[in-house]
Amino acid sequence: MENNSQPTPPKSNNVVVIALVVIGIAVVMSSSGDDDTKDEGAVKDAPRPVAEATRAYEPPPPCDDAYLATLNEKELRRRRNEVYARKGRTFKSPDLRSYFFSKPWYQPDPNFDSSRLSLADQECIDRVQVWEEEAEHMRSLGYAY
Questions:
Q1: Tell me: the pLDDT tens digits for 89-136?
Q2: Which of 46, 55, 91, 108 could connect to 104 by a Cys-Cys bridge, CB 3.0–4.6 Å?
Q3: Torsion angle of alpha carbons 42, 100, 89, 145, nearest 10°?
């Protein structure tokens, strides 16, 4: 005797998965609005597009003498401030604001506190400052740095 019936597909939870995805998207969209009641005098940054904020992690550059010796004064300043930027510090200086806002990993946090800095972060800042002082000294002697 022949069995002409179609095999039944295995039961799936596709409907449940789709529903959870839709709910997740709705929750994310409803919680991403700006809070206009916060510090009225603060300079607000433009909202970061979701696609930009979810780019791959970009590791920080090294903070050793061999690397720092290759940087000019402007690059040293950026490298020092990158330590703070990676912890969410906001910047008043237009050039630093523009530079760090162009980085996919930068997420400004108006509640930044320097207590977020690790010992390694502080050591990097101190090392870069030594190189900045050396660059300034060399420039004062007439050397291009």
A1: 999 999 999 999 999 999 999 999 999 999 999 999 999 999 999 999
A2: 55
A3: -120
